[in-house]
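User: Hi! I'm a student and our assignment asks us to look at how structure tokens line up with a sequence. Could you show me two examples?

Assistant: Happy to help. In each example below, the sequence comes first and the structure tokens follow. Example one:
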Amino acid sequence: MKTSTGDKYLICYEENVVHKDIQNLPKTIWSRVKEIVKERLTLSPEKAGDPLLGEFKGHRRIRSGDYRLVYRISKLERTVIITAIEHREYIYKS
């Protein structure tokens, strides 16, 4: 997992996000995602995104245009693990 430090929560990216999702994002979307991570996820990840249901229970999502950032929170470790960043058409199918 790749990590970056934040003010409050440590941000980790799963390997598939680093090697696949980020590489496939348009640069403008990646810039927006970095802003979201810095401004919202490091400070209050519980409030930043909406909870998901079904097979994604325990994960949350943030919308950015037609793209979705999916993550889970480890409160004990004060860590946010980003598990996917994809277009809304594909995010829940992988």
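Example two works the same way, sequence first and then tokens:
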Amino acid sequence: MSRPVLTSMARRLDLPVERLALLEAYDEADLTVLDDAISLAIRAEDRAVADGLEEAVRFVPRPLRGRARALVFGTDRG
């Protein structure tokens, strides 16, 4: 049976938990630190992508900018 932190990590990475079986040898504290680091990295990447897209939308001519934002972000973010 997989430990909860490995289940969390597998879900976060969109992997079957069996792919993380080699991590069973590590203690809970180390796995928690790794899971937290993965979470932070994913959030930082998501934020960087969103910021990059927002910056790119600035180059769209003003009359079309709202529509471009709606296409990229799903809503008109002003």
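Here is something you could point out in your write-up. The CA atoms of residues 61 and 68 lie 10 Å apart.
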